[in-house]
Sequence to fold (167 residues):
Amino acid sequence: MHHLSYTIIAVIILSMGVAPVFAQTQSQFAVKDPSSAQSYPVNYSITNGTVNDMSINTNETSLVVSIQSTGDGNLTMTLPRTLIDAKAGADDDQFYVLVDGADTDFDESKAGTDRTITVSFPDGTEEIEVIGTQVVPEFGSVAFVVLAIAIMSIIVFSAKTRIRLGQ
Fold:
């Protein structure tokens, strides 16, 4: 009976020690909207590097990913469409991806609520930027709707007031 338990323990230890050296690190990063402080989860995996930070640049409609590379590697990110998207009207448009400021090719798969991109990067890379056509809903469009409703209310109110004063 003792030999059987030692064999099982040896098999468990051996199977744990055979993990691949270039394993991807599966993680999630909470990207904060700078205006509302709402958080958007971005699932990612990276080989030969670590992700230090992810942030939204609303002026550039982009997601900026700060990494520390330990060799040539790949970064795969699942980007929620509510965080960043690229649209031409109602149709999907192409993202632009920069690796340390240089335009690069990437692989992409699309789903209804997110888009997944895989970017290769050389050793020494510090920043990967994904540029879309829109990032987290900006306050500007909501403010425009509120302003339009307020103006219409003022016009209607002043028209009704004039009718009463004229009688």
Summary: The helical segments are 2-16, 139-166. The radius of gyration is 25 Å. The longest helix spans residues 139-166. The CA atoms of residues 1 and 7 lie 10 Å apart.
